[in-house]
């Protein structure tokens, strides 16, 4: 039972273009969502988050959009840079649990 | 500030052996977690703890045990290693929302 799904295992984008990574969830109780970036042989590092009371959150080149009715969130990276090449995980938690459920990840490759 | 420290970084175990993966954090975070990442898969929650003396099962707890006697330490115990436990294990901690991860322990069971 995969409660958080990232249906695209990989994505390639040209440098300078927009990268869009998608994430779907099934549990309507989830109210907090995070994106993590992971380089090989390192632990995941936090990128950006969004609460269910918002539908958009921006931090520099990174924007997360949340569509609660569709149970869908997306991460936009503009402009994409070669250093953004990594595996991106979305994660979700339900109120008061602080138990994060992760998706399977999307490997982003930004081509110079 | 070291953050979350995991030891060892690599380990090869024989089937049936036991070992403890160590995790310590110096950020005074209440919440701590153990995840495993299998090739091509996401992070699966094994166990988590909301404070010293309190632990709870995650998505894939079978074959593992944990304890949380102090705020800083959250060791993960494998009692009878099986090939299915070959994975990369990540420990994480958080004050409430954002997790800080360690760099992982790569475990191979042969």
Question: How would you summarize what this structure contains?
Answer:
The complex is a heterodimer of chains A (112) and B (110). Chain A has 112 residues and is mainly beta.
Helical amount of chain A: under 10%
The biggest beta sheet of chain B, please?
A: 7 strands, mixed
Q: Outline the biggest β-sheet of chain A.
A: 6 strands, mixed
Give the SSE order of chain A as H and E letters.
Answer: EEEEEEEEEEE
Rg of chain B computed from alpha carbons, rounded to a whole number of angstroms: 13 Å
Radius of gyration of chain A (CA) equals 13 Å
Describe the global form of chain B. Answer: globular
Beta-strand content of chain A: over 45%
Largest interface: A-B, 23 and 27 residues
What is the end-to-end distance of chain B?
Answer: 36 Å
Low-confidence stretches of chain B: none
Structural class of chain B: mainly beta
What's the helix and strand layout?
The complex is a heterodimer of chains A (112) and B (110).
Chain A: E1 4-5, E2 10-14, E3 19-25, E4 32-38, E5 45-51, E6 56-59, E7 62-67, E8 72-77, E9 86-93, E10 101-102, E11 106-111
Chain B: E1 4-7, E2 10-13, E3 19-25, E4 31-37, E5 43-51, E6 54-57, E7 64-66, E8 76-78, E9 87-94, E10 100-101, E11 105-109
Parallel strand pairs in B: 2-11
Antiparallel strand pairs in B: 1-3, 3-8, 4-5, 4-9, 5-6, 7-8, 9-10, 9-11
């Amino acid at each position: 039972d995969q409660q958080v799904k990232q249906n695209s295992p990989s994505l390639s984008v040209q440098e300078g273009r927009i990268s869009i990574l998608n994430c779907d969830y099934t549990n309507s109780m989830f109210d907090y969502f995070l994106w993590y970036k992971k380089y090989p042989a390192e632990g995941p590092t936090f990128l950006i988050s969004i609460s269910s009371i918002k539908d958009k959150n921006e931090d520099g080149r990174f924007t997360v959009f949340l569509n609660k009715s569709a149970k869908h969130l997306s991460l936009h990276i503009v402009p994409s840079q070669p250093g953004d090449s990594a595996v991106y995980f979305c994660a979700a938690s339900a109120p008061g649990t602080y138990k994060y459920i992760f998706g399977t990840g999307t490997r982003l490759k930004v081509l110079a | 500030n070291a953050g979350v420290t995991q030891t060892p970084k690599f380990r090869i175990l024989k089937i049936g052996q036991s070992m403890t993966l160590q995790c310590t954090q110096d950020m005074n975070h209440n919440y701590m977690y153990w995840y495993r990442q299998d090739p091509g898969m996401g992070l699966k929650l094994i166990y988590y703890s909301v404070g010293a003396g309190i632990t709870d099962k995650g998505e894939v707890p079978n074959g593992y045990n944990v304890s949380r006697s102090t705020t800083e330490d959250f060791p993960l115990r494998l009692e009878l290693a099986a090939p299915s436990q070959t994975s990369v294990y990540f420990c994480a901690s958080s004050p409430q929302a954002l997790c800080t991860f360690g760099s992982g322990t790569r475990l191979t069971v042969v």
